[in-house]
Amino acid sequence: MQIQPFSVNDGEGIRTNIFMAGCPLRCRWCSNPEGFEQKKLMGWHKRKCIGCGACTAVCPQGIGIDLNAGRDRCTACGACADACPEEARTRMVTLMDADDVIREVLKHRLFFSYSGGGVTFSGGEATSQPEFLDYLSRELYDAGCSIDLESCGYFDFELVRPSLERMDLIFMDLKHMDPAVHKEFTGVSNERILENIARLVTLGRPAENGAAGHGAPETVIRIPVIGGVNNSEENIAASAAYVHDVLPAAKMELLPYHSLGRIKYEAIGMPFDQEGFYTPDKEEMKKLRGIAAAQGVEIVDYR
Amino acid sequence: MAITKRVEKIRDNYVNTKPHISYERAWSWTKSFQRTEGQPHLIRTAQAFYDTCCELSVNIWEGELVVGTSGEFRKCAILTPEFGWLWIDEEIDTFPERGQDPYDVTPEQTEFIRKNIFPYWKGKSVEEAFLARTSEATKKIGVDTGFLDTDSKWRNGIGEISADYIDVLLPKGYGGIRAEAESYMAELDEAIPSDKEKIDFYRSMVLVADGMITLGRRYSMKAAEMAEAETDPVRKRELAEIADVCSRIPEQPPKTFREAIQFVWFVQLGGIIAENPLAWNPGRFDQYMYPYYKADEEAGIIDYDTALELVECLWLKYSEWAWTISRNTASFFAGYTNFENLTVGGTKVDGTDATNTISYMAIQATRECMTHQPTLSCRIHPDCPPEFMEAVTELVSTGCGFPAIHGDRTGYQMLSNLGYKPEDARDWNNCGCVVPHSRKTFEWTSAASISFAAALEFALNQGRSRLSGEQVAPEEKDPKTFASMDEILEAWKKQFRYLVRHGVISLVTAQEIHREIGHRPFMSACNEYCMKNGRDLVDGGAKYNIGPVFTGVGLSVMANSLAVIKKLVFEDGVTTMAEIIDAIDSNWEGYEQLRELALACPKYGNDDDYVDSIARDLADFFYEEVTKYDDLYGNHFVTAFMGISNYLPTGKVLGATPEGRHAKDPINEGVSPYTGSDKSTCLAALRSAAKMNHDKHSGGTLLNLRLNHDLVATKRGRANLGAMLQSYFALGGFHVQFNTISNEVLADAQANPDKYRSLLVRVAGYSAQFTNLSREMQDSIMARNAHEAF
Asked: Which of 3.40.50.2020, 1.10.3860.10, 3.30.300.130, 3.30.70.20 would CATH assign to domain A41-93?
């Protein structure tokens, strides 16, 4: 996992994002490839590297400067990152003790409370570590901290229901309405995701038998608009119509594709193959937002 | 709305002309002093002020609504040879061409000044007295060294006063001040020695008041003459109105907003003529101006836009006056900045929110005029109205570097710690750049600049300057033999104590001289308690007499350096003291890898207690050491981490430092992280800075950060910025200021200065026009770390 303080586009106010590695999807436009697998991972930023060899000198596995050439032997112990004077070797994914995570994020509670911010669970896919998510969300909920979740929507709903119910806001992605296209570009069909979006309406519970109730989280269904994949007017209209139908209270956010993940692919030695996608321009985004809004959905923007 | 045509024209002139040296004031002052030989110095000063008010040329410039200039040029820089003239004599020929803050001056003027003015002051100036009374040892460490500097207190007028508009000036007018002085005088008996001194003081008050009244009347007559000759009916009417206003102002208390604006400018002008002062602060403008606005608005004689135009005219008057300073001083205070600090917002004395229409008008005027003066400061209290926060952060987003943003409660606490009563502490305003101040106070707020990094250099170089090799400080053992952090810290403390001690000696000497020949009748007339006590400011007449302030420079360089030695030598054992000393002796040449290791050590500004705790301990030591000493008046000295642009000259005199800095590179200002070393988030930088126990350092603390413009481009982003500010203040931080202009824009401005004449940027605790800064200053601003990721 990784902690990223000072995030302002994933919910209200100033937030700390907790990226939890491991994701059941393999979206071909993904900008966070380090989050695919649930394991520690080192990165090598070739452009920052001055070739001093400080990393090699301390590596217990004897890996050279080119980390990717010896990646199969890397245990992600982090010795090279500590030795590197240029921050060319970095920890992309680390293991962290849950209580350390809580201590770290709550350092910023003043910034949270003044801005109406808090913590956003993100990924990778936060629900891929259900027990960790349950523990963190409970502790932070009890600390009075605002918590949001960003999810791909592909998970066992009942397993993570307690975590979901603690959230103030849930962002869930809807990448394509066509199951076949969805499978082609993300590796899984969209059925479970559509189902989970519909089940969000069941969150929240009234007070009963002396137990405190809990309001339903706010929901925002997000479409990452990938030029060439899901940016047809029909798909956007169908997506918004579906959301409006099954989850009338939900808002929607349309985010344009970006290729900033390229440097991460380089750092972890994975091929970057996103040449087929493009970033819709402002005009196109405006038009698509209008189409979604026409289905009766409120469009939001956390910029 | 956009600025009016009138304001635009005045502004164009301000942006496109160089200040011109005027000797009118110096000439009148000199002639007056020639006539008053033998009189008490206080009386001579007041008489010189009066004579100057009678003789100074009276000019009303095209389009002006607010009138009054300190000489024959619209952008005027005047001379005060009674404080110091040696440096002017030495440098005046280079004034027009020098890199930082040039002034126009003609050869004829220069000749006149050298022939008629300087000869009289030979041996009589404050500067000469200081140099005559100062030992060689003190000079070696504390005169023009960049290690320890106090010369703003013996080469220039002092300034550093906040006019008391609320209890003295506006309700009384100079007619009232004169009458009050006379009624006190009537009760005194010349045959009683203590009364005799007071009589002199009250005579000085009468002379000052008469000078101000005369000045107003002369402007009234001039305006009437010009109205008579004017053919344009609109301008004719305006001139007639100026004549009418100045027929009463500043003798009588103003009755309207229009009169109050003119009154405030006359007071400012009076201070300029008296001392050519730095940090001559208008104070809480929104508090004393609002009642006039409200009354006029209710009476239907003014509307918002009319008032705004007057305020903008005033802003341009604040900016047209240029402070005359030496090349060396200009490197400390770059950009013609005279620190006329004007404060808005905060709480009233009763604890309720103080914002009003004028608070917003002041912010709007700064945004529209983009003048480098007044130095606009905002006080932000925990319950600050969201609209005010939006106005403040919106101004930040323009990138002009204004306003300086201050935490209300920390400012209150800083004054409380100095012994202020709650009602006065709550009423604090800013002085200069980031000093919490009061209109009831006499204090040298920027007295000594003391370099933490210089003390380290001496500790690690046997008391010698690394660049010159000269023995300037106490001897120390061979740094290669230091065997523990404690030993190094002790050596640093020894050197730092030495700097403090010589700073104290210098400043007490300067205080003695000012008590003899630095009387301040004009400023004393602006201070409620001087009148009550019958004593000039330099004789301790004010309600609060606060000890002079030491400004610490280079805190982060020092803390980062100690962290490097601690980690690399004494913990990790990857290098030795000998190697570090060799590396900095050779300016890191041949030690590039060691330098990389040093750069990778924890750096202040990233919320890392490993180094932040070192910085805090150093700051606390600074406080303990400085406050041990008392000044001439029995008040303890005070600490600050202010800014000004002193991080350049203080860096230029130093060799390389252990944290990886190269020789002559800048150090750092205030409690700011070292340029580029705060690599985490803005939140981490704020958290590090907040650890410095700000309330102890009652002379003020300064934090400069750069923010990527995108972060404040939306209303939502600005609300988050507001939340960051409130958090910083809740953590105990005092001041923060932002540059938000991208380096692309700044680079373009360097290449095409003509396109960017009006571009204002943050220097340190103040803003200046970017194109008025020297190339190296521009570069150092661009090098400051921009926090990209929100």
From this structure: 3.30.70.20
